[in-house]
Structures
1.
Amino acid sequence: MKVCIKLLGELRQYLPECGKFNQCKLNIPTGSTLQKILSQLKVPDDQDFIVLLNGDLMQKQEYASIIPGSGDEIIIFSPIKGG
Amino acid sequence: MSWQRLILRVNLTTQNCHVEPLNMEWAQQYLGQRGLGSKYLLEEMNPAADALSAENKLIFATGPLTGTMASTGGRYSVITKGALTGAIACSNSGGKFGAELKLAGYDLLIIEGQSSRPVYLSIENEKVELCDASHLWGKTVWDTEVLLSAVDPQLKIASIGPAGENLCRFACVVNDRHRAAGRSGVGAVMGSKKLKAIAVRGTRGLHCNDNSHACNEIFQSINIRLTKRQGYRRNGTLAMMDITNSFGSLPTRNNQQVQFERASEINVEAMQTRNRNGHTNLVTNAACFACTIGCGRICKIDPAHFSIKDKTQYHGASGGLEYETAYALGAACGVADIDAATYAGFLCNEYGMDPISLGGTIAAAMEMYETGILSDTDTAGIKLEFGSAEALCEITELTAKGKGFGQQIAMGSKLLTKKYGCPELSMSVKGQEFAAYDGRSMQGMGLAYATSNRGACHLRADPYGHDFKSTGTGGKAEVVKTSQDEVAFIDSTGLCLFTGGSGWSISDYCELVNTVCEGVWNEQRVFETGERIWNLERQFNLQAGLSKKDDTLPGRILEEPAKSGVGRGLVNKLGEMLPEYYRLRGWDQDGRPLQETLKRLGL
C-alpha cells in the first residue's frame, strides 16, 4: 500500500529518490508501524523530529504501535526556530 | 578585550557629541547590547516619558562579540521606549553596520534630545560630526544609502525612511539596504529626533584577547560546530511555513484561521521553483557580518508581475521574504501571491517599516472592511478584502508614503481598531502585532507573547520544541521563563539567536564570551545575567505604567477555539500558566518583582 510522506524543512534532504521537493508516495507493506516507516526514511536517530499522522500529533512512545492505513499522510519535521 | 570601553554620546538638542568611558561594573552585570543598553536607558530616562518626546533616548548598542570573527558576530540592538508599544523596545539587527560601529571604537552610541532640523551623524573613528540632512529628508533608505555612500563607499549606514520621518508607529531602522532593527517603532523615535541616518567608518580594530592566535583557534573551532545543520542556509526561515501550516499554528486572516489553504503558494517551494513565466523568486542566499549560517534570502520579483510592471527600480534583486514577512504579508492577509508579498517586503525595506506590524495591521483592517466597520469611503475606494494582492500592494505603498488610508494603517492595529471601536480585532500584545505563531496550538508561544517585555514577539523566548511536542500547558511556564533568560543573554553578546538553532549550546556561548571578556562566564552566570536583564526590562515597563493587565492576549486567542490543526478545539489557557510563570520569576501575583528577587539579582 502507499502512504504520503512529507519531510519538511531541513529533513527534506532525507526524501527518497522517488519524491518531488519534499513529498513522495511511499510503498510500504500493509501492517507496517510508524516506527518501521520512519526507519525506511533514513532520518538519523539523533535527529529530533515531530510526526503528524493525518494532522494529529504522534507521541514517540506510539511510533511502535501505530499502523497507518493506505493513503494516510505522514508529516515529519524538525523543530526549528523562526524569524 | 572585546569591550571597547567607550560610549559615544550625542545630544541632538545641543548638537554636542562627546566620548565617555563605559561603566565596566555594569558591563560585568549586563554584558552588552540588549542588557547593557537597557541598563543605560533605565538609568538615564524617565520610563513614563512620551516615546516621541525629547526625553526619550535612542541607544545603539553592540555586544562584546560584535566585530569579532565569532560566527554571526555583527549584531547590534536599538534600545529605546517603543513608539508602537510604550514599553521598553530592543530591536536587533545584523548586516555590517553593528560591527563597523564597534570597530570605530564604541560599545554604545547614546542619542538624546531632539534636533530642530534634519541631521545625520557621521562617525569616522574618533572624528564625529552632526551634519545637515535637509537634502536627505524625504528620501528612502535606499536613496539615502546611495547618497551617503557617494561620499565614501566604505561607509556603513543605518537610516530611517519616510515612514520614520512620518512617525509611522512601526517604522524601523534599516541598515545595509535590507537588514533592520525592525520591531516596536524604533524608527519613529529616530524620526522624532530628526536624525535621518548614522554613517560610520571604523578602522580602529578590536583587541579580543592577549593571545590572538589562541583566540582565532577558539573562534574557528566553535564556528565549525554550526556546519552540522544547514536548514537555514538551504531554505531560509521560510521553511517554517510548511511546519506551522501543517501543525495548525499559522495565523491566517487576522487569526481567524490557523491554517492557510494556499500556503503552498508562498512557501520555500514557491520561492525556489520556476513560475509559469519561467521566473524564480529566489536568487541566492546572503549572510551578515562574520555569519556562517547565511539564512538571508535575496530575491527578484517577476518583472511581469502587476506590482512592478512599470517600476523598473524594483526589477533587481534585493532582500526577500523571511518566514515572518511571508506570514504577515501573505497568510495574515490571506494573500497567496509570493511576488506581491516580496514587493510589499521591498517597500518595507525601502521606506523603513516593520513588515510584521504592517501585515498585522492590514489584516486587522481587512477584517474591519469585510465586517463593514470600514467602508469604501474610509479606504478611499481600496477594496481591502482578504486575499487581494492588489489591495496589499496599494495600501503598503500608501502607508510607506504616509498618504490616504495608509496614514491610518501607520498607527498600528491597536490604535486603528480602537479608533473604529473594535479593539478586539487587534491581534497584538502591548500594542505590538503577533509574530507568525498562533498561541492556541502553541500554548508556550502564547505565554511568551503575553509576557514579552517588548510586546508580542517570537524571539523573546524559545518554546518551539516544547510546543511542537505538546499542546498542553504543563511545563510551559518553566520553558518560557528559562528560555527568556537564555535569549536575553544571547541578545547581549553581539551574536545571532539562530546560532542556537544551528548547533551552538550554552557552553559554546560561555567559551566565546570567556575568550573576549574579563571574568568567569559559566552556565549559571548566563542564566543569572539573562534573568537580571529580564527583570530590569520589567522594571522599566512597570515604571512606564504597564502592569499585569498588559500581560494578556486578545480575546480571539483566549476564547475562540482553533478551528483546525493539532490544536483544534483549543484556546490559549493563559490563566493556567501565568500564575506559575510569575511564581517562577519571583514576582508577586500582580507581576511585580519581589524585593528578594531584586536583591538576589542586584537590582
2.
Amino acid sequence: MDKLHRDLVDLLSKDARQSTEDLARMTDSTAEEVEEAIDELEEDGVLLGYQAVVDWTEVTDDHVEAYVEVNVALDRETDYTDVSERIQSYPEVQRLTLVSGNYDFGLVIQGDSMNEVSRFVSDKIAVIPEITQTVTHFVMETYKDRGVEFGDGDDDERLSVSP
Amino acid sequence: MKPSDRVDRVPPSGIRRFFELAEEADDVISLGVGEPDFSAPWAAREAGITSLEQGRTSYTANRGRRELRERIQRKLREYDLEYSADDEIIVTTGVSEALDVGIRALVNPGDTVAVPDPSYVSYRPTVEFADAEPLAVPTSMDDEFRLSYETLQEAGAEDADALVMCYPNNPTGAIMPEDDLREVAEFARDHDVTVLSDEVYADLTYDGDHTSIASLEGMRERTVVFNGFSKAYAMTGMRLGYAAAPPEVVSAMNRVHQYTMLSAPTTAQYMAIEALDSCNADVEEMRREFDRRRNFVLARLEEIGLDCFTAKGAFYVFPESPWEDDGEFAEALLEEEGVAVVPGNVFGESGEGHLRMSYATGMEDLKEAMDRLDSFV
C-alpha cells in the first residue's frame, strides 16, 4: 500500500468525518487524489464502513450491550465459517470474532433491555446445534471505545502563549 | 532594593505581553504555544507515579542517575554520536539549565557569543546573565532561516568565542541539512568557535533524519550537544534535559550545576528512563500527527496567500505577516478574531514582519484558527 493510501486509512480510522479537502491538505496531496484513493480503498474492501462512537448513556436508558462467549463442537461437515454464518446475520450481533483461548467465538450483542439480550442469546444463539455453551457478560460501564475515551476529557492547562 | 545592573539591562520577554493579552480575551484559539498539546506517554507517567509510591524522592547524583545517563548514551547513537555515560553526559533541569550552565562554564565575561536571529527568546538573556555579549547573526526567509559560512562571516562572527544555535528551530521551524551544517562546522573550525547546539526538537523532523553538528568531522571536540524530554516526549513541565560534551566540559558544567541545582528532579528522571526504554512508538505517533498538521497549515497558508517557506522541523511555521508591523497584526488578529499568534519581532530583529504559528494544537482548533485568519486577511 502506498503512503497516501496508508495515511488515509490511519486518518479515517481516527476520524472519518474529515472533509476531502482537509484530508488532502494533511497528506500534501490534491482533493482528486484523495477522492480516488478512498474509492480504491472502498472497492478493495479495505474501508468497509464509517460509524460514530456513541456514548449511549447520553441517548437513552434503554441500551444494553453484552459480550457473549460461545463454544462450539465441529465435525467433518461443519467448520467455523459455517457456524459464523448462522450467527453473523442477526442485526443484534454487532461484532463476531473467532478467538484463541477458553472459548471459540466472541460476540458483542446490543439490545434495548437485559431481558431482550438474554432471550436473544437463549433463543437464537444457544439453540444452534454446534454451539455447546454460551457465557453472557453484560457491560456495566464503558470507559473507552475504539480509542475514544468517554467522559468530559481534560482541559488544556497550557499557558495560552509560551516561548 | 535595587536589581543588579546585570538584570536591569535585560528587558522582560516580549512574549509576556502577548500572553497577558491572550489571557484577557475570550474564546481564544492559541497558535502561540511552544509546547506539545499531548501529555507525556502514559508509560512514562506511570513510571513517575511508581517511583513516588516507592518513595524515591531524594537527590540523585549531580550528573543524574546512572541508568538514565546510560540510556541517553544509547539514544545519542541514533544521531551518530558517541558519548560516555561515565563522564560525558550531564542531566539537567531542562535544556534551559543546561544552556545556562554550559555558557557559564565555557564563556568568559566580555566574550562574544553569536546567536542566530531570529531565535528562541532565552539565548540572548542567558548570554547576558553570564556577562558576555550576544552577537546577532541575521537569517532570512530567502535562506529558509539557515546559517551559512557567509551569513556568519557577514555578521562578524569570526571574532565570536561561541555560537548558540537551535535546529530544528524555534521560532521558524527551519532545519539545517547536513550540507549546510558542514559550512557552519567549517566556520567554527576556521575561527575556533565553540558550538552550543540545542537539538531539543531533533526527533521532530519531517523530511529525513536529524543530523547533529557534533557528528561532523572535527566538531565533537568543539561542540556541546543539548537535548531533552520536553518536546518529543511531551514532558515540558517535568523540566528535564541533558548535555553531552567532552569530559573537561561536562566536568566544568557539573561544577556550576552542583552548586546551583544539585541535581535534576528525581521523579522526572524516572519518567525519562521509561520514556527512553519504551516510548519510541508514542514519539513516532506524535511526530506523524504533527506532520499532518504541518501539511495542513502550510496548505491553508498558501490558500490564504501568506508567504511561508516549507518548515521541516519542530512544530512551528513562520509566515510573513500580511501587515508590515507584525506586532500590530498579531494584536488585531487576537482582538478581532480571537486567534493568538506570536509576532516575529519578539524573537529578534530578523523576525520582524513574520508571525510564529505553532501547530501543537488539535486539528479542530487549527481548522477554525485558519478559517478565522482567512476571513481576517
